[in-house]
């Protein structure tokens, strides 16, 4: 099968690492391809960024379906554009945050999500509630490193994330940790090991890995999103550069 | 290639179902998996009431521990009441999957709300209690029943299909369901037909096959090398215990 991962930013430099992150636990027979956006922002941290990237995410999602791809994943823990894409597509559209949070909910009584900046905590709490999972949420905590600075000092990033995770476990009662930025792809194992060394043995999920296995499962199960929940929109006049909204 | 073994627990004393269970799972298992099914020595013939859950749980614990000792990578409890699920997670470190929990979470990812179609009307409160336990009440549109006892479901497949379909249509049109979960693993084999008939009637929604959903979550956790949080299910402490036949939980 072929899964398309949309890097929902204009930062093409991330494509190679993104592809590697999604291939990590994908079935050997699964083809993974990554595309970035023509229009949007360099990273996604706020509502403004969501507003500017979602239209092009929809364009890329429709293109993927036309190319015969079997599932789409949007590589961002804000799950931007996922709900709208599900209206336009018949193939599954997976958001890594939704997939990871549901798995986290199955692995422990409560989970915590680690987001980038303090100001993003309400947004992430709202997102958890939108999935109906707020009773399974221990807390959202921030590790205070902007997305574009995560890789400046990976060791410092790792130590900071471990520190905040430990607070979530010991103070908030988290029993599972969900890293709230796909810029932390590949860190989960080291975060989990670092926590274990400090006497906090909890699963730390890798959202790209959870997303790719969820997408594979949906394709193999022959399932896609409900057309009752995400009905195809009625055609109407529209104007947007380079897009055929109703497949005309 | 090292094969990962998944043990499916048939939480009843009805040995005839072991073979059928295995067929359902085998049809969907990937090449890296080895599957086995085991039934219970003590319990009831089918699981419908809370009493059935209670009498199944000790046997589920036994089979889960034995599976782990035999090198299984994961265990699936093949019953939509998820009997013994939380207890089993305390006594083994490998993932234990309950198809009801797994199906609720997958349905929640695919729709705004889902409905569960169970067998007896008397089961409806217990199913709602499960949704409460998993904190999924908000995503549950309704629980409906087809009023055919589990032990009679396979007597007249056509009648069972028509009853499922009618209940599914009502769930969608009256209760606002965006997805359907069959509330009994024996209903799994007719899910494709329920889905096709709904689609033919203009209702395009996911109809889940719970055993296969459970299988995919088991495979996912094996691929992720993850299992349940030990903080959520701490291994119980030692204490005096007694049982009427050998039980591995007493050896711990």
What's the quick description here?
The complex is a heterodimer of chains A (248) and B (252). By secondary structure, chain A is an alpha/beta fold.
pLDDT averaged over residues of chain B: 94
Sheet of most strands of chain A: 4 strands, parallel
Q: Got a strand count of chain B? A: 7
Q: From N to C, what is the helix and strand string of chain A?
A: EHEHEHEHEHEHEHH
Average pLDDT level of chain A? 95
Report what the structure shows.
The complex is a heterodimer of chains A (248) and B (252). With 248 residues, chain A is an alpha/beta fold. Chain A has 2 domains: 2-95 and 208-221, Rossmann fold (3-Layer(aba) Sandwich); 97-205, Rossmann fold (3-Layer(aba) Sandwich), CATH 3.40.50. Helices cover 41% and strands 13% of the residues of chain A. Chain A has helices at residues 15-23, 47-66, 82-88, 96-107, 121-130, 154-172, 188-197, 207-221, and strands spanning 2-7, 31-36, 71-74, 93-94, 111-115, 137-142, 176-179. In chain A, the strands form 2 sheets. In chain A, strands 2-1-3-4 form a 4-stranded parallel sheet, with helices on both faces. In chain A, strands 6-5-7 form a 3-stranded parallel sheet, sandwiched between helices. In chain A, α5 (121-130) links the parallel β5 and β6. The radius of gyration of chain A is 18 Å and the shape is globular. The two termini of chain A are 27 Å apart. Chain B contains 8 helices and 7 strands. The longest helix of chain B has 20 residues, at 50-69. Chain B has a 4-stranded parallel sheet with strand order 2-1-3-4, with helices on both faces. Chain B has a 3-stranded parallel sheet with strand order 6-5-7, with helices on both faces. Chain B has 2 domains: 4-98 and 211-250, Rossmann fold, CATH 3.40.50; 100-209, Rossmann fold (3-Layer(aba) Sandwich), CATH 3.40.50.12500. In chain B, 53% of the residues are buried. The two termini of chain B are 32 Å apart. Chain B is globular. Chain A binds chain B through residues 25, 27, 94, 98-99, 102-103, 105-109, 131-133, 135-136, 169, 175-176, 201-203, 205-206, 209-210, 213-214, 217-218, 220-221, 223-229, and chain B through 28, 30, 101-102, 105-106, 108-113, 134-136, 138-139, 172, 177-179, 203-206, 208-209, 212-213, 216-217, 219-220, 223-224, 226-232.
């Amino acid at each position: 099968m072929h899964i398309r991962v949309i890097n929902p930013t204009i930062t093409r430099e991330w494509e190679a690492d993104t592809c590697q992150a999604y291939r990590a636990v994908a079935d050997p027979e699964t083809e993974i391809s990554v595309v970035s956006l023509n229009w949007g922002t360099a990273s996604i941290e706020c509502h403004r960024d969501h507003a500017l990237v979602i239209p092009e995410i929809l364009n890329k999602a429709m293109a993927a379906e036309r190319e015969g791809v079997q599932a789409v994943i949007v590589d961002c823990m804000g799950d931007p554009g996922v709900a709208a894409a599900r209206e336009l597509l018949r193939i599954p559209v997976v958001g890594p945050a939704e997939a990871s949070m549901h798995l986290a909910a199955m692995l422990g009584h409560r989970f915590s999500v680690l987001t980038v900046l303090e100001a993003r905590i309400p947004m992430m709490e709202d997102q958890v509630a939108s999935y109906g999972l707020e009773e399974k949420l221990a807390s959202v905590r921030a590790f205070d490193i902007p997305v574009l600075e995560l890789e400046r000092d990976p060791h410092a990033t790792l130590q900071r994330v471990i520190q905040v995770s430990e607070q979530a476990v010991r103070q908030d009662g988290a029993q599972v940790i969900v890293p709230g930025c796909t810029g932390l792809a590949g860190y989960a194992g080291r975060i989990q090991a670092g926590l274990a060394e400090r006497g906090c043995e909890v699963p730390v999920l890798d959202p790209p890995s959870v997303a790719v296995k969820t997408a594979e499962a949906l394709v193999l199960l022959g399932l896609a999103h409900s057309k009752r929940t995400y009905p195809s929109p009625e055609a109407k006049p529209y104007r947007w550069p380079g897009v055929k909204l109703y497949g005309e | 290639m090292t094969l990962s073994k998944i043990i499916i627990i048939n939480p009843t004393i009805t040995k005839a179902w072991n073979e059928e269970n295995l067929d359902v799972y085998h049809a969907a298992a990937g090449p890296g998996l080895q599957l086995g099914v085991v039934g219970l020595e003590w319990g009831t013939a089918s699981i419908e009431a809370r009493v059935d859950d209670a009498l199944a749980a000790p046997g589920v614990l036994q089979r889960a521990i034995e599976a782990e000792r035999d090198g299984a990578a994961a265990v699936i409890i093949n019953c939509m009441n998820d009997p013994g699920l939380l207890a089993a997670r305390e006594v083994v470190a490998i993932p234990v999957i309950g198809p009801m929990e797994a199906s609720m979470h997958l349905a929640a990812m695919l729709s705004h709300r889902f409905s569960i179609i169970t067998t007896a009307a008397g089961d409806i409160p217990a199913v709602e209690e499960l949704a409460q336990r998993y904190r999924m009440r908000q995503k549950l549109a309704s629980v409906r029943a087809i009023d055919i006892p589990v032990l009679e479901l396979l007597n007249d497949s056509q009648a069972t299909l028509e009853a499922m379909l009618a209940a599914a249509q009502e769930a969608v049109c009256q209760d606002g369901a965006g997805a359907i979960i069959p509330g009994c693993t024996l209903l799994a084999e007719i899910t494709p037909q329920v889905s096709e008939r709904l689609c033919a009637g203009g209702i395009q929604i996911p109809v889940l096959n719970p055993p296969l959903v459970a299988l995919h979550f088991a495979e996912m956790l094996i691929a992720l090398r993850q299992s349940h949080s030990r903080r959520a299910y701490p291994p119980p402490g030692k204490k005096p215990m007694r049982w009427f036949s050998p039980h591995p939980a007493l050896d711990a």
